[in-house]
């Protein structure tokens, strides 16, 4: 009984994560279209701002990486989100020298973590990721693939 309740709660949480990921993806696509439209309009009237364009574009990239993190559940996906979020902050904000130095140090630390602490297994999603959708068919495919 207790095991089935835990399974149900985990499955429910995973489905809610997928719903959130789909919503973020939808909003990100809308933002992408609006950024393109606004950029063209501002170019035509001569008021294009590269800083605003970079801010919007980096927000789109962070949104896409966040969706990947919610779906994949891998350590590499988490470090990618952090890397893009910090890079966005460095590119968009005009902070003090100390803030910029700390941001660059954080990016270096993330690259060190990716190089030396994450293994190849950390970038592959769990084998049952598609099985959650298709009722275990992906696990059977994977088993026949290894034979």
The biggest beta sheet reads: none
Instruction: Determine the structural class based on helices, strands and strand pairing.
Output: mainly alpha
Number of strands: 0
As residue ranges, the low-confidence spans are 137-147
Estimate the strand proportion: under 5%
Distance between the termini: 36 Å
Oligomeric state as shown? single chain
Report the radius of gyration as a whole number of Å: 20 Å
Could you characterize the architecture of this molecule?
There is one protein chain. The protein is mainly alpha-helical and 147 residues long. Helices cover 82% and strands 0% of the residues. The protein has helices spanning 2-45, 50-72, 75-92, 97-117, 131-134, 137-146. Helix 1 (2-45) runs antiparallel to helix 2 (50-72) and helix 2 (50-72) packs antiparallel against helix 3 (75-92). The longest helix is centred in the N-terminal third of the chain and has 44 residues, at 2-45. The chain starts with a helix and ends with a helix. The model is unreliable at 137-147 (pLDDT under 50).
